[in-house]
Amino acid sequence: MGFFDLIWSIFLIFLMVAWFWVLIAVVADIFRSKDLGGFAKALWIGFVIIIPWLGVLVYVIARGDKMQEHNAQAMNDMEAAQKDYIRSVATTSPAAELERLAGLKEKGVLTQEEFAAQKAKVLAG
Predict the structure, then answer these.
(1) What is the SS3 assignment for 25?
(2) What is the mean pLDDT for each group of 10 consecutive residues in the chain (125 residues)?
(3) Which residues contact 68 (CB under 8 A, 6 or more apart)?
(4) Coil, strand, or helix at residue 37?
């Protein structure tokens, strides 16, 4: 087996992996499309299964913009969920914040005026 046979094999494996990646992306997009009814989804899945190369090509041409919108919406939903989770975990209760400020005042890190100003912020926000 020569060097060019090895390169050709690697290229074919790459094409096969890319093909499966696109096929999985198309099938996933068909199932998550809220704008397609059940019958339309069944037709697209049937088309992709019966004539895979043509089915995927036609789907990407016909609904490529919708695929991009679905991906963008999924990313926005994940980002919003992540931000909500971070906010829920990162925020401290006003009582805990006041307790922390009182500890800093007792240690002498905060003066009475600084403590009063921070306390007003915590109680206001």
Answers:
(1) helix
(2) 90 94 92 89 92 90 88 91 83 81 87 88 80
(3) none
(4) coil
Residue 34: strand, helix, or coil: coil
Whole-structure pTM value: 0.59
Neighbours of 83 (CB within 10 A): 10
The position carrying tokens 């096929």 is 23
Question: How deeply is 28 buried, as exposed, middle or buried, from its count of CB atoms within 10 A (0-12, 13-18, 19+)?
Answer: middle
Dig out the tokens for 87 from the structure: 């906010």
| CB neighbourhood size of 26 (10 A) | 23
Question: Is 60 in contact with 67 (CB distance < 8 Å)?
Answer: yes
Residue 63 CB-half CA count within 13 A: 22
Give tens-digit pLDDT for 81-102: 998 888 777 777 788 888 888 8
